[in-house]
Specification:
The complex is a heterodimer of chains A (about 270) and B (about 130). Chain A is mainly alpha-helical. Helix content of chain A is about 50%, strand content about 10%. In chain A, the strands form 3 sheets. Chain A has a two-stranded antiparallel ribbon with strand order 1-2. The longest helix of chain A is centred in the C-terminal third of the chain and has 27 residues. Chain B has one domain. Helix content of chain B is about 70%, strand content about 0%. Classes of the chains: A mainly alpha (about 270), B mainly alpha (about 130). At the A-B interface, helix 6, helix 10 and helix 11 of A face helix 2, helix 3 and helix 4 of B.
């Protein structure tokens, strides 16, 4: 289990207690984790006056936590099946992380019910600007405001590990900076709680080679993925698979992520 | 022709009710409060779509028709037929972008797509464009 791997490497995340793979108990496999205090709500994290003090410390704390996640390499996993699952299409020798990510989003775009010319432009830019990955590491995959718990005193845990995989560390850094995860605090580009440079400087204490061009690639990719995700979520509502007002409304937000990805490309010239 | 009030005024009445009467009583329930705001926001989207939807759709078809060299007279079509046509022509545009591997922000295609995105945002979330 990925969160157990992270927990054993000292990442601040709730202690995993039980993994039940038998679907017959509650209808799906499930796992239990230690209960932790705090709240993860994005708007609360970036805006609540009671968090003013801890918010200032978040770049330092989160950069440290992220560096611990990124210290985990595929070779440390004894379970070969899990290693392969976390690698997906990425080849350990070729380190073709960007290529593999592009292949996956292309498959997703093919399945969308309506044409999205903006996504086609973005995918072409991504294909022409693929960065190399220096080192394959564990990537949280959804490292953003809203997925860590905080109290006014401390960060109590990183949560939501279901998108964890082996990939490029810049993917997590970029995802934290994606516009939608700033929850209205647009100038604080790192998760709505710090400037981009403040966060970069803290992360560079552990990895001085942080490459802003690679962050750009993964941020454009992040916006594209979230644009696709918003279409998929709305489809769940439309098809009646999972009805809800939030799912229904998210489809109309696709153009926000498409616009942002294109804006990033325009500013990259 | 329907009697007054117009669809837009009906929507405004529901939006007002949600914000003034429902939202205050959900303040102790974060999720309910959030869903009320999402609902209010969706009503605002519908209201803007009723006002500008057809105008933007026609403008999009004019751009696509010119780019794809189409000769269809779409102005006489119903709203639903125009939507179907926009879907078809956007598919053709997508295929051209894919075939030619276009991603230059100075290209005709890039600007064509951005104009349509801007119009989508004018309806879905005009605040998003502030500062652009």
């Amino acid at each position: 289990m990925v969160c157990e791997l992270a927990y054993n490497h000292g990442v601040k995340t709730p202690k995993p207690i039980l993994l039940e793979t038998n679907s017959s108990i509650i209808g799906n496999p499930f796992y239990l984790m230690e209960k932790i205090s705090g709240k993860a709500n994005g708007r609360y994290v970036v805006k609540s006056p009671e968090l003013a003090k801890i918010r200032k410390q978040l770049p330092k704390i989160l950069a440290y936590e992220l560096s611990k996640i990124h210290s985990i390499q595929p070779k440390e996993l004894k379970d070969e099946r899990l290693q392969q699952k976390l690698l997906g299409n990425t080849n350990l020798e070729k380190k073709n992380v960007a290529e593999s990510a592009i292949k996956n989003v292309k498959i997703q775009i093919e399945k969308l019910p309506e044409p999205h010319p903006a996504m086609e432009l973005i995918i072409n830019w991504l294909e022409a600007n693929q960065p190399e990955t220096d080192e394959i590491v564990l990537v949280h995959g959804d490292f953003r405001t809203g997925n860590f718990m905080v109290t006014p005193e401390e960060l109590t845990g990183i949560i939501d590990w279901e998108f964890a995989h082996f990939g490029d560390r810049h993917e997590d850094i970029a995802w934290l900076c994606v516009r939608d995860w700033r929850f209205g605090k647009l100038k604080l580009e790192a998760g709505g709680f710090a400037t981009r440079q403040e966060f970069y400087e803290e992360y560079k204490k552990y990895f001085p080679q942080l490459d802003e061009k690679k962050v750009l690639f993964w941020e454009v990719m992040g916006n594209l993925r979230w644009a696709i995700g918003s279409v998929e979520q709305a489809e769940r509502h439309i098809l009646g698979l999972d009805r809800g007002i939030e799912l229904a409304s998210i489809g109309r937000r696709t153009c926000e992520m498409e616009w942002e990805a294109m804006r990033l490309v325009e500013n990259a010239r | 022709m329907q009697d007054r009030p117009s669809a837009n005024i009906l929507l405004e009445a529901i939006a007002d009710f949600l914000i003034k009467e429902i939202l205050p009583i959900t303040k102790d329930n974060d999720l309910l409060s959030y869903k009320t705001l999402v609902s209010w926001n969706m009503l605002e989207i519908i209201s803007r779509e009723l006002k500008y939807g057809e105008k933007f759709l026609t403008a999009e078809l004019e751009r696509l028709s010119s780019y794809l060299n189409k000769e269809d007279n779409f102005l006489t079509k119903t709203y639903q037929e125009k939507l179907e046509l926009a879907k078809l022509w956007n598919k053709e545009l997508s295929e051209k972008i894919r075939e030619k591997k276009i991603f230059n922000p100075h290209s005709v295609e890039w600007n064509l797509v951005k104009l349509t995105l801007r119009e989508k945002l004018e309806i879905a979330n005009p605040k998003f464009l502030q500062g652009e």
